Amino acid sequence: MEPETTTQAENNSLNVGTTEDFHTQLVEAGGRLVVVHFHSDESNSSKIMVPKCKELADVHKDVLFLKVDIGLEDMAERYNVSMTPTFLFLKNGKEVEAITGANERRLEHLVHKLKR
Q1: What's the pTM?
Q2: Would you say 45 and 85 are in contact if contact means Cβ atoms under 8 Å apart?
C-alpha cells in the first residue's frame, strides 16, 4: 500500500502522509509560521483538537497548519514526539515552541504570538 501524500484541505490546513511531503511543505512555507499537529486517530484528545486547528487555519491564513499521524515514526522520532496531541511551532524549518495536550487556549495564544 502506497503512503498517503499531502492533500490540500479547504485552506492552509494540510494532512501530511510522508516525510518528503512534510519537508516540501516546510520549504514552501519559507518564513511563515508552521503549526504541526501530531495526532492519532485513537486519541480522543487529538480528535478534540482537530476542529480548533481548522478554526485557527480559517482565521490565520498566513499560518500553515500541518497534521501528521504519530505513526509516521521517523517524524515523531525526529521531533521527539511520544504522545498526542503534540503541537510544534516551526519558523524557517526550526522549532520555536512546542506544547503537548489538548489545550485550545494555549494553542491559540501561541499562534497569535509566534506568527509575527
Answers
A1: 0.88
A2: yes
